[in-house]
From TrEMBL:
Family as reported in the entry's similarity comment: Belongs to the protein kinase superfamily. CK1 Ser/Thr protein kinase family.
Cleaved signal peptide residues: none
Presence of keyword Cell wall biogenesis/degradation: no
PROSITE patterns: PROTEIN_KINASE_ATP, PROTEIN_KINASE_DOM
Natural source organism: Takifugu bimaculatus
Protein name: Protein kinase domain-containing protein
Origin: domain of life: Eukaryota
Keyword Nucleotide-binding found: yes
Name of a matching Pfam family: Pkinase
Residue ranges annotated for the Protein kinase domain, each copy included: 21-247
InterPro entries for the chain: CK1_Ser-Thr_kinase, Kinase-like_dom_sf, Prot_kinase_dom, Protein_kinase_ATP_BS, TTBK_Asator-like_STKc
Stretches for region Disordered: 226-247
Binding site residues for ATP: 50
Amino acid sequence: MSGAAENTDILSVADVVKDRWKVARKIGGGGFGEVYEVLDQLSQATVALKVESAQHPKQVLKMEVAVLKKLQGKDHVCRFVGCGQNERFTYVVMELQGRNLADLRRTMTGGTFSVSTTLRLGKQILEAIESIHSVGFLHRDIKPSNFAMGRLASTCRCCYMLDFGLARQFANSNQEVRPPRSVAGFRGTVRYASINAHKNKEMGRHDDLWSLFYMLVEVHGWSASMEENQRQSKKTGAPKCRAMGRQ
Ligand SMILES: Nc1ncnc2c1ncn2[C@@H]1O[C@H](COP(=O)(O)OP(=O)(O)OP(=O)(O)O)[C@@H](O)[C@H]1O
Ligand SMILES: [Mg+2]
């Protein structure tokens, strides 16, 4: 980490949280928190620790912990290791995964995934969305940086859902859908948000699916290949399905 970054980070390399988790490096920092790779000095495992400053005006980590705990045992979900808080920050410790899909996409030739990779990811992400819906919550921030591949030989073909900070309960314990609010504040990421979300309407399960659709369009580069296909078909009369045929 650079000196400048270190000054604003909540934790520094070699800091130890709760006499147990020793910071190795920072791996992410978004709108709500910072994520570090840490060594669990009890189990000697390398795990991820996400922190949220006590000064942050919107406290979302407690919601994240509640949803992560509810999802334990499901596929596509990180194993929960621990959580806590002190006067400076709230934290959650979980299984460490590999790189997120936004970073992985940028490393690909042409900046996009093939059709087969996109479809296999789409299936896994759909399963992950089904899991969170099955425990009565919407994710509300489906996007490539909120999914990561496993980092071990046994998990590297599995895609994991991250970041439940914007999750919202849509059903009560009797599986009844909560009545919608007439106006709900915008939640999520503009680029992947459904029309409903842009209109500040109460979100539902379908809005997570719209975001999945937008993210798949992006990671495969479908918009670019559609335009190219339209140009080609105007010129040659080639069939439209050729647009999906990127290798
Ligand atoms: N368990 C994990 N294992 C590996 N990397 C992780 C893990 N959790 C988070 N990350 C990394 O940290 C990044 C930020 O994490 P997360 O999305 O949970 O934080 P955030 O502050 O809520 O982000 P944002 O506001 O940008 O959505 C992720 O994109 C991912 O690269
Ligand atoms: Mg995130």
